[in-house]
Amino acid sequence: MLLNNLFDDPARADRLISIAQSSFLPLVKGALTYTLSLTLISFFFGLILAILIALARISRVQPLDWIARLYVSVIRGTPLLVQLFVIFYGLPSIGVTIDPFPSAVIGFSLNVGGYASEIVRAAILSIPKGQWEAASSIGMSYRQALQRIILPQAARVSIPPLSNSFISLIKDTSLAAAILVSEMFRKAQEIAAATYEPLLVYIEAALIYWVICLVLSFIQDRLESRLDRYVAK
């Protein structure tokens, strides 16, 4: 039906083509400037937090374990959008005002930390206890064994699920539009409001997200294939 309408109205078809062409660069710029940078920064800090939380979970220090469990429960039990709203719109009520982009980084990093910590914890626990015992037998401390033996092996195990989390984060950054971050979806909203063609613009944004995820999925497959060479069959 839509295609029939376009064939019946060449002027509108030309207008849609013009809008698609003029909106492409702003959308790509939003993706490169904010979407990808927000993803990379948030995932970096989130991964550091995830490792700390995972280590706290497997430690024998009960207060740390309880705090880590509570943190993971809160993050996994509340919507990401609500977390962003609490940081950006809620904190100013107690005198803490944070700009949109840093608010998004904080929100996404905390969210990644909560979910990725379970991936990291499972990867560490998957390493046979014999590895710990072997490290101890040659005089390594707990910290040395963790750094030199356990974490490198756990990293290899955790790469596939962490890669999936990274790709999911690319799409989740669209929620940052709700706290005024000028990432790609926010740009799409602005263009749609100005052109009154939301279907076209949102489909174009969706295609760009799709292409980015396809590229990342290809990189993930190549990385996993490379790592498989070093896994004993």
Automatic annotation (TrEMBL):
Span of domain ABC transmembrane type-1: 32-220
Superkingdom of origin: Bacteria
Molecular functions per Gene Ontology: L-cystine transmembrane transporter activity
Sorted UniProt keywords: Amino-acid transport, Cell membrane, Membrane, Transmembrane, Transmembrane helix, Transport
Family matches, as InterPro entries: AA_ABC_transptr_permease_3TM, ArtM/GltK/GlnP/TcyL/YhdX-like, MetI-like, MetI-like_sf
Keyword Transmembrane recorded: yes
Record localization: Cell membrane
Recorded GO CC terms: ATP-binding cassette (ABC) transporter complex
Keyword Methyltransferase on entry: no
Transmembrane segments: 31-58, 70-91, 199-219
Membrane topology listed for this record: Multi-pass membrane protein
Pfam families: BPD_transp_1
Annotated NCBIfam families: HEQRo_perm_3TM (TIGR01726)
Sequence similarity: Belongs to the binding-protein-dependent transport system permease family.
Protein name: Cystine transport system permease protein
